[in-house]
Structures are given as structure tokens and as C-alpha cells.
Amino acid sequence: MGVLRGLLCPECQTPEENAEAEVKEATLDYAHMAPDDEGRQQVAPIGGWHTVIAMEHPLVREDKSVHLALSVESAELRVAVGSQSDARLHELFDGACATVVRAALDRKQAQPGQREIKYTPMDDLGADTILLIEDHALCEDGEDRGELMLSFSPSLNPHLLDAFAPPVAEVIRSVLRST
């Protein structure tokens, strides 16, 4: 089956069509298109994603205090979880991301836990990465206060909020507004 395409030479474009093309070029990531299930090319917004994948992340693999790493690269939302992660972490996420996180946690045989999550901006974290890590007290003095920290940059890529369930995204927004 062929794909119908249209082409309009720049001289034939109306000012409105030219403006629309300029806006799309400035806001859409054409360098990282990917086909959907039906073969149509998906285009993500710049900084956003069209694909959610589970993969290994060196931080999660090497540091048992890191339970989850979420990042955007090449229009992919990349999720990494460790076997030490709480099996209910998928409840933080929405849509396809929740499905990928749940499957990754199942593969790692993660067990359910009872930890509270604190939301913490970190200045030295990149705008396209979110980490779920042990609370500082456990890392420093070994005392487990039953907390995990969802850590993100104060200049967080706003597209990352789309991965989270609405109540979680709203908490992150309110923390970012207060910083």
C-alpha cells in the first residue's frame, strides 16, 4: 500500500501555509520520526516522545538506591527499573508509560512495598531525567524512614509530566511552582 503525499513549492505557499510550516518546524522533532503500528510516521514535539520503552540504565543497575530512571532521548521515553523497586510504582504513571513500567517491574520481579514518595527538585539533574531514589537518611545513616524521593530538575522538561498520572503530575507542578 502506498502513502499519499503532497508537495507544495515555496513560491506557491500562501503566507498562512508558510507560517504553519515554520511553526511545525520549530515545535516538532522531524529528526526522530518512527512508524506506528499501521506504518504511519509519528512525529513527537521537540523534547517529547512518541515511543515508550523499558531499558537498562547504569544508575539503576549499579546503584541500589536508585529505583527508577525516566528520561527522554531521541523522541523515546526511556524507563529503567530495578528489582529493588516497589512493584506498585506503575501507579504513578499514565497510559502507555504505566503499561511499560508495570511490565518492566514484573520482569525484574519487584515486590510491593509501603513507601511514601517525596517530591524533590535537584539542581544537578538534567531537565530530561527523573529519578526515584532512596531518601537521603537511608543513604547517609542507614535509617529507613520509609520514603522514596522522586527527584527532578527545577527546569524539568514539561513533556515528562505527560508520563505521570494527573495527580502525580499536579504535585510535581506545585513543587516546581514553589521553587
Task: Describe the secondary-structure layout.
Elements: H1 15-27, E1 28-35, E2 41-45, E3 51-54, H2 58-62, E4 66-73, E5 76-81, H3 95-107, E6 116-121, E7 129-134, H4 136-141, E8 147-152, H5 166-178
Plain-language structure description:
By secondary structure, this protein is an alpha/beta fold. The chain contains 5 helices and 8 strands; from the N terminus they run H-E-E-E-H-E-E-H-E-E-H-E-H. The strands form 2 sheets. It has a 6-stranded mixed sheet. A two-stranded antiparallel ribbon has the order 1-2. A hairpin with a 5-residue loop joins strand 1 and strand 2.
Give a summary of the structure in a few sentences:
This protein is an alpha/beta fold and 179 residues long.
- Mean of residue pLDDT values: 86
Shape: elongated
Structural class: alpha/beta
**DSSP helix count?**
5
Approximate strand percentage: 25-35%
Biggest pleated sheet: 6 strands, mixed
Total strands: the figure is: 8
Order of strands, widest sheet? 3-5-4-7-8-6
Backbone CA Rg: 20 Å
Helices and strands, in order, run as HEEEHEEHEEHEH
The level of helicity is: 25-40%
Low-confidence stretches: none
